[in-house]
Amino acid sequence: MRKLPRVLVVEDEPSIAELIAVNLRHNGFAPTVVFDGAAAQREIDAVLPDVILLDWMLPGESGAVLARQWRKHERTRTVPILMLTARSDESDKVQGLDAGADDYITKPFSTQELLARIRAVLRRRAPEIVNDSVQIGELSLDAATYRVSFRGKELKVGPTEFKLLHYLMKHAERVHTRGTLLDKIWGDHVFIEERTVDVHVKRLRESLGEAASMVETVRGAGYRLTALNHTGKSATSDTTPSA
Ligand code: CA
Known about the structure:
By secondary structure, the chain is α/β, with parallel strands linked by helices. 38% of the residues lie in helices and 19% in strands. Helix 4 (90-98) links the parallel strand 4 and strand 5.
């Protein structure tokens, strides 16, 4: 199953928050609604969102203050922030962007506008989670339809393995350390150990079947995805995970 982009909605007006959440849900996003900065922080500590919709005027700390804090912290530094405000004042826009927001949207806004802005910030900040497709040799992956196939035969790949494969295919023939993969795939490795990568690589190989050897272990360095040569084996293969 496809992993939906997680959207943290920080909005204190329940009717607006609910409207946004319903629209996001109907359009392939997984929204979580909170009403202030403290609740938003608790949510972020538990699960890092893919994008934050942040209202400007909130009880407690303002959206601008929160955006500034999140930009400073390692964990939230790269999470796209889309600022919402009731005011169309140009100075607010400048302040919002200065605080580290990626974009700015003025209420009232249409659902289409909101969705377009969310997709745009996700594409800019996290190209790995927006749709596209890639092909390496006879292995192809289509992120739009969430399909992986080898020699025309569709393969079943779990959500994390899919993301991992997507990243490896988009950056094929290069060696990626476990740390890099954690950063790029999990986006946040505060609670994840490096050997988690090995577990998912093992599962990915199992899913790939005949194409398993395309995912190489590079001893002492990490992993690499490489095209199979004409003998049907990867150029150099070492399936033993190294520390
Ligand atoms: Ca408000």
